[in-house]
């Protein structure tokens, strides 16, 4: 199965929970018991609780020896059937104890000399530390782990992504996903998302479509449901709703270059990819209390449909800049609140004037298969006719970027002149090239030819103009993205 998934560039994520089945025939239980690595009762005996396997014991992850033991279990020689394309989801790691007080571990249980009450909030993070280390060990510290966690603590962002937990197929839970993810984001947990469609319950077609449309613009993008809910693969809905979900998914994949750049920049300075309006517009006091919308980086304003039957959204446009509808490319010179059309096929999303965003437009079966695809740059000039943006590229899987094997560049547009400059010295070559440049809200160009200059060549590219949408398109300038270049229109 894994080999089949890997052949299409896809990965597998398996659930590994902290509770260990009490079973004398289970070697993990016997190892932990004989090594004394379980949480203890006050009398020194191993603490027993109840979880999915029934009677269960709980590893003491405050003990480094327990964390090291769990890390060793991820070696490919130990974790039978796994490969380097198999990653891990640590669930139930608060820890969940079905027969415990508040469905968790009693506060007087012992982690060595430390009572559980003094480290409860750390338990989930300590578990993900072990998993993260295990992923590093299995690749000899060459490949980046992916770990998903339900429980987190200050510092968990170094080890795992997080989701908002067991939500429900209700419009109110779709609405709540935005402030929850924004709270996680500004607290440092930038790789966050919510279960699309709700974990419990059965979403109707409208809720499912609107949830996909909203979640496509959140950092962690996943549909997930309880085993007792109805099957909810997109093709089980109507043909029209399946098509709308497909469009939402494709919009997500097209923006992966933007997301990847934002995650790199978060690693450098802590700035979250998903941001409240006031984060980007602190001078606009009207944005402080606005809920239901958010920014993706500094460039996209997202205002999802959050109520049943709605075909318009009251959008708050912060600041005093231009905005461009990313679907129609319509230019808006507006500040403050405005009712905006939101037909079933889309949600309102706007590119901020003064920004440039990178996209990949070719449809593939996975992100890995898109890795070497060309880039389209969408330029949204501000009122002075200027814009800027960044793009980050590396091998997508290793730590070689920490030794400089990366490309990090800035694009600028200034009234007909576009430039690419390296922010840091280029540390790798890439086959990725520039396929198109779209300039929104543009005046007609003086001609139909753009001049392209790079260290290797000077050439020309076709420039065309759509008078209806006011979009200038430069097609196939052909420059590679591992060098600096200039385009003049």
Describe this protein's structure.
The chain is α+β, with helices and mostly antiparallel strands and 489 residues long. 21% of the residues lie in helices and 26% in strands. It has 9 helices and 30 strands. α3 packs across α4 (123-138). The N and C termini lie far apart (51 Å). The model has no long low-confidence stretch (mean pLDDT 97).
In short:
The protein has 489 residues and is of the alpha+beta class. It contains 9 helices and 30 strands. Strand 6 and strand 7 form a beta hairpin.
State the helicity in percent bands.
Answer: 10-25%
- Poorly predicted regions are none
Kindly report the oligomeric state of this protein: single chain
Radius of gyration: 25 Å
Strand order of the biggest β-sheet: 21-22-26-29-28-27-30-25-24-23
Count of helical segments?
Answer: 9
Sketch the major β-sheet.
10 strands, mixed
Q: Pairing-aware structural class of the strands and helices?
A: alpha+beta
Overall average residue pLDDT:
97
Shape: globular
Strand percentage lies at 25-35%
Total beta strands: 30
Terminus-to-terminus distance:
51 Å
């Amino acid at each position: 199965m894994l080999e089949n998934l890997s052949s299409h560039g896809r990965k597998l994520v398996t659930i590994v929970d902290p509770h260990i089945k009490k079973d004398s025939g289970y070697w993990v239980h016997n190892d932990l018991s004989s090594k004394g690595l379980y949480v203890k009762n006050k009398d020194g005996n191993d603490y027993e609780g109840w979880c999915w396997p029934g009677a269960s014991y709980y590893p003491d992850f405050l003990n480094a020896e327990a964390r090291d033991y769990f890390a060793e279990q991820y070696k490919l020689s130990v974790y039978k059937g796994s490969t380097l394309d198999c990653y891990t989801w640590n669930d139930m790691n608060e820890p969940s104890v079905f027969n415990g007080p508040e469905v968790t571990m009693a506060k007087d249980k012992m982690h060595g000399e430390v009572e559980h009450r003094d480290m409860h909030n750390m338990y989930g993070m300590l578990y993900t530390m072990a998993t993260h280390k295990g992923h590093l060990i299995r690749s000899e510290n060459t490949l980046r782990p992916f770990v998903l966690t339900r429980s987190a603590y200050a510092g968990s962002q170094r080890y795992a992504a997080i989701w908002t937990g067991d939500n429900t197929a209700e419009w109110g839970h779709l609405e709540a996903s935005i402030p929850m993810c924004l709270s996680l984001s500004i607290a440092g947990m930038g790789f966050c998302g919510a279960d699309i469609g709700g974990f419990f319950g059965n979403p109707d077609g409208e809720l499912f479509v609107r949830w996909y449309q909203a979640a496509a613009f959140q950092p962690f993008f996943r549909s997930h449901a309880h085993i007792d809910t109805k099957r909810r693969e997109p093709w089980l809905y109507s043909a029209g709703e399946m098509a709308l979900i497909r469009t939402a998914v494709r919009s997500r994949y097209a923006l992966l270059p933007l997301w990847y750049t934002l995650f790199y920049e978060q690693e450098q300075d802590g700035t979250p990819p998903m941001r409240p309006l006031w984060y980007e517009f602190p001078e606009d006091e009207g944005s402080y209390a606005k809920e239901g919308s958010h920014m993706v980086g500094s460039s996209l304003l997202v205002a999802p449909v959050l109520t049943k039957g709605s075909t318009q959204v009251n959008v708050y446009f912060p600041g005093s800049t231009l905005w461009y509808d990313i679907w129609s490319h319509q230019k808006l010179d507006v500040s403050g609140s405005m009712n905006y059309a939101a037909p079933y096929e889309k949600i309102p999303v706007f590119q901020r004037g003064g920004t440039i965003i990178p996209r990949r437009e070719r449809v593939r079966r996975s992100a890995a298969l898109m890795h070497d695809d060309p880039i389209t740059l969408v330029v949204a000039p501000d009122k002075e006719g200027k814009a800027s943006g960044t793009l980050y590229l590396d091998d997508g899987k290793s730590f070689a970027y920490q030794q400089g094997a990366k490309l990090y560049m800035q694009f600028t547009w200034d009234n007909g002149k576009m430039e690419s400059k390296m922010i840091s010295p280029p540390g790798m070559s890439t086959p990725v090239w520039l396929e198109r440049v779209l300039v929104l809200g543009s005046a007609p160009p003086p001609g139909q030819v753009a001049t392209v200059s790079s260290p290797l060549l000077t050439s020309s590219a076709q420039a065309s103009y759509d008078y209806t949408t006011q979009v200038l398109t430069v097609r196939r300038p052909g420059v590679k993205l591992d060098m600096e270049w200039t385009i003049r229109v």
